[in-house]
Amino acid sequence: MSSTREIVTLQFGNYANYIGAHWWNIQESSFSYNPEDAPSEISHDVLYREGVNLNRQVTYTPRLLLVDLDGSLKHLPREGELYGNSIKRTNESIESTDDVKKIKEELQNLSADVEVVEQPHASKHDFQKDLEDPVIDIQEKNYNLADNVDTWTDYLYARYHPRTVNIVNDYKHSTEKQTFDTYACGVQLWQTEQFEDEFCDKIRQYVEECDFLQGFQTLFDCFNGYSGLATACMEYLNDEYGKANFAIPVYSPRNTPFENADEPMSDSIRVVNSALAFHKLSEQASLFVPLSTSDRVWRQLGAARQLRSLTYQPDNLYQTSAVLAAYLDTISLRYRLRNAPSAYSLAGFCGDLNNYGRKLAGAAFALPFPMQHKQDLIDCLDQFEGPIFTSLTPNCNIGTDYVIQTLCVRGITRDRLKQPLEKAKEQMRMAAYKCDSVSEMFQLYLQCANHASMSHVASVSMAMPTRIPFPSEMFAEEMTKLGFLSPTTKRQPEEKVVSVPTLAAAQSSSELGDTLETLHREAKRVKIAKLHRYKAAGLEEDDYVDALEQLLLFKDNYEDNFEL
Amino acid sequence: MASISLLNPKAEFARAAQALAINISAAKGLQDVMRTNLGPKGTMKMLVSGAGDIKITKDGNVLLHEMQIQHPTASMIARASTAQDDSTGDGTTSTVLLIGELLKQADIFLTEGLHPRIVTEGFEKARSKALEVLDAVKIPIEINKKNLIGIANTSLRTKVHPALADVLTEVCVDAILAIRKDDKPVDLHMVELMEMQHKTATDTSLIRGIVMDHGTRHPDMPKRLENAYVLTCNVSLEYEKSEVNSGFFYKTAEEREKFVRAEREFIDQRVQKIIALKRKLCDGTEKTLVVINQKGIDPMSLDALAKEGIMALRRAKRRNMERLALACGGTAMNSFDDLEESHLGYAGVVYEHVLGENKYTFVEECKNPQSVTILIKGPNKHTIVQIKDAIRDGLRAINNALVDKCVIPGAGAFEVRVYNELNKYKDTVKGKVRLGIQAFAEALLVIPKNLAINSGYDAQDTIVKLTEEDRLNPEPIGLDLSTGEPMKPVDMHVYDNYLVKKQILNSCSVIASNLLLVDEVMRAGMTSLKG
Ligand SMILES: Nc1ncnc2c1ncn2[C@@H]1O[C@H](COP(=O)(O)OP(=O)(O)O)[C@@H](O)[C@H]1O
Ligand SMILES: [Mg+2]
């Protein structure tokens, strides 16, 4: 009997799907198909499921449901490619292909005329074409993905189950303007047959397959209509399953205007959606950690967050989503480890942080974790100057004192901890020398660095893979192939960083009170009555006022520095 | 708007006329796409998306949903017609054709200088007259299999090929008759639609019981039981690790263990209650027990149940709780505190079927099931989807007939009759308004004309034959698509829903009038753009 503690993942929205695509790619690039390899420290079965297609081939796909708008998939058939049920398209007209001829013949035998109506062939990105070619090694090529990706399906390496993709036809995808605009529209969409029946049934099918379901992780665009759709879904999940639910509201760094709205109005819509969603999340999530590479997202989008040894284009969806995916891949190790004690669960992760109703936590990340290539961790931490990581939660600073946090470190092996006794020299004088594991040493470091704080640290020795299609061009030249720093030598351009050590944290601190306060302040300034589209989609002014009041009460949970 | 027209009334008029022309051409465009679909001889369309997704359909509603309609007028017509489908399940193509034709016919008079208001007044009069005719030609029906087959088959033959339509007709009618109780309205949700991707479309069948899309999750559990008590419940049989599971809050490992054990025992007690009941009722008899739970059942609980030879399914659909109770009898239980025999349902056989990665459980041989399942089969997804759409519409056509307690002669008969009646009626009306009535009458002929064209007959000939024959007969006359000759729809069992026709008349005249009074439409358009 397996004892995998499964999780179902939900992705709502185009940017969430950008992040998701990277995240599944990262995971799959660390899969090992060699039975002789040591078993991975990560239990992939937590997020993946095994299946068989109709040709009796075994499939291994994310236990995932995603939602996007019509027009966002490009070449990707809605049912995916693993289970058939779509026609392979090339540049020529479809009428002449064998597949179509066969279907037509069958139909003509049964009734009269068949008219084929074909939409123009959706072109495939070169990366996707090469994936189908067994001779080509994608790692050897340069795709310039940062400059030519149009949508997340372009660089998707992972393959999805036919259940996974859910397309909303009522709103059209466009990179110019956002048509699916308000929280209220999202709530309305949830009440349609596509969601109340079909989508919920797909959730049930996944859940039915699970022996020990831990819960759900819900990744969603928080700035547009998905804010309402995703949070309505979370409410349903709580009613129906009552499991832990970890939410990750995300903000795109690109300020795409809403339909029939100028920039100030678009900003207002984003603020209102955020306020309504955060209020709902404070009720429905076990824990929520907002993510963005922009430092502020309420009224105006702020500057790009700076990470050491990393450069990216501030509004590049492909690159920024990779940074956020790398964070998720690291922080989620807490509940994805093989043979872990039971506190290493989704409920344990959320439960550590959400005491006193503090369901909102901040994200902090070091990508790469800045360690010299020949350095020991003990010296690295000892010599560290400045903050150890960067905040990825918008409108939120890194907490220093009275912090409750969970950390996950990956890519630092035991032998990089410290020198053996006979060579230890100076190291022996440090208190940390008595630490025998990576997590222990981080614990000690944090005890010294953060006053009156409490930390949970998990560590995985395997570094995070950053092979293509991950945007490894973001890494500085001073980084070695394995992601450590080597300020004296420069990496050759043709040599790519294949993996990096990372450090991620989710923090609960009084900083989050400020996050909520600034959101509340901005939201209060919006004259909701002037945004007709909310009322048109069924949101009354009173509901908004109520939500803001509740949001303020929620903020109070972060007011007093509690006693540990 | 008002201030502009004061400055330059001519410009205003020109703009309105131009907008009207645009409306009419948009409506014609949509009509052209849809006209080939009308009726049982309409063309099947195979839609292939840019990514290679396939959809095969003959149904106007499906087609409208798949089309990317940009033009506001076209999309207004499309919305009216999908609304038609939402409320009645039928009549989409007719709606699009009729709106387009009303505009075309009106245009003839408008170019001669007639004011749109006069035309719409005529439409209004014609519409009420047509509704009178509708009531005059309706055929009251007794609710029995033969009558329902007529209406279901007419509808289904416009969606799928004839051989399949005949199979589906039988399936749909039997399904409705099974769940119908006395004269109470039927709840179509009590017909479950379950799909299985294998075999061929004509293997689609009615299961007088429930089919679920999941099966057992324990290797030793029975895969088939006969003579089964069925316990439906909504009670968790899984040890839920609670949120206080956090690493910070247990001082010792023992403390944590204690908590886990207490929780586990609680679940075990529930499992033991089921086992006790099974022993009491089944041991020493031929009887068996099946548990169908809406909540989870964890491996430990499954193991205990399997050891007793109990078949147990977890995470059943919420709606299946109700369906199972209607199919097998018994009550869906929310607790096991006072569990007794009377709470259980019965099924002659319960068995599992595995297909690729999917499992199915059949609950069959129920006594007098009032909830049933239509098991849809097909070799690929697009066939299954097409059948599912057709069945939904078929079920609604039957249900409409149950509600209406009558049907309308189809094959263009109703439209031809209204045409003749309106022509008589218009002579009794004074003034130019009669021109609007005439336009309405002409427009209705779009239905028989396109039925004729789609079967390869001449539209003009057909109309002449049908209108003449109709004048000579008290009974309405429609078009026999296999001969091109007039026939009595009653003889051929070609019926349409009363409700559908009524709705078509109402919505088409309203929408067409709105589009003609384009000035107002433009104004409405402006305000809806704001905010
Ligand atoms: N066997 C038949 N012979 C002649 N006319 C038929 C037959 N079956 C259906 N019709 C006519 O076809 C029309 C419906 O066609 P259909 O394609 O279903 O369009 P809609 O979407 O408007 O329902 C009705 O006017 C109906 O009377
Ligand atoms: Mg029809």
Structure description:
The complex is a heterodimer of chains A (564) and B (531). Chain A is 32% helix and 15% strand. Chain A is of the alpha/beta class. Chain A has a domain of 148 residues. In chain A, strands 6-4-1-7-8-9 form a six-stranded parallel sheet, sandwiched between helices. Chain A has a five-stranded mixed sheet with strand order 11-10-16-12-13, sandwiched between helices. The longest helix of chain A is centred in the middle third of the chain and has 22 residues. Chain A is globular and about 90 Å long. The mean pLDDT of chain A is 91. Among the domains of chain B are: 206 residues, GROEL, domain 1; 159 residues, 3-Layer(bba) Sandwich (GroEL), CATH 3.50.7.10. Chain B contains 19 helices and 16 strands. Chain B has a six-stranded mixed sheet, sandwiched between helices. A three-stranded antiparallel sheet of chain B has the order 3-13-16. A three-stranded mixed sheet of chain B has the order 4-12-5. Chain B is elongated, with a radius of gyration of 30 Å. At the A-B interface, helix 2, strand 5, helix 6, helix 10 and helix 14 of A face strand 1 and helix 8 of B. Strand 5 of chain A pairs parallel with strand 1 of chain B, so a sheet runs across the interface. The complex binds adenosine-5'-diphosphate (ADP) and magnesium ion (MG). Magnesium ion binds next to loops of chain B.
Provide keyphrases for this structure.
heterodimer; A: 564 residues; six-stranded parallel sheet; five-stranded mixed sheet; 15 helices; B: 531 residues; alpha+beta; GROEL, domain 1; GroEL; six-stranded mixed sheet; three-stranded antiparallel sheet; disordered C terminus; binds adenosine-5'-diphosphate; binds magnesium ion; mitochondrion (chain A); DML1/Misato_tubulin (chain A); DML1/Misato (chain A)
Q: What structural class results from the helix and strand content of chain A?
A: alpha/beta
Q: What is the CA-atom radius of gyration of chain A, in angstroms?
A: 24 Å
User: How is the biggest beta sheet of chain B arranged?
Assistant: 6 strands, mixed
Q: Which strand-content bin applies to the residues of chain B?
A: 5-15%
Which oligomeric form is depicted? Answer: heterodimer
CATH topology of the domain at 4-137 and 414-459 and 498-523 in chain B: GROEL, domain 1
Average pLDDT score of chain A: 91
Report the biggest beta sheet of chain A as strand number plus sense, adding barrel if it closes.
6 strands, parallel
For the secondary structure, the number of strands of chain B is: 16
Cα(first) to Cα(last) distance of chain B is 19 Å
Rg of chain B, alpha carbons: 30 Å
Low-confidence stretches of chain B: 1-14, 243-247, 520-531
- Unreliable stretches covering 5 or more consecutive residues of chain A: none
Keywords (chain B): ATP-binding, Chaperone, Cytoplasm, Nucleotide-binding
Subcellular location (chain B): Cytoplasm
GO molecular function, one term (chain B): ATP hydrolysis activity
Protein name (chain B): T-complex protein 1 subunit zeta
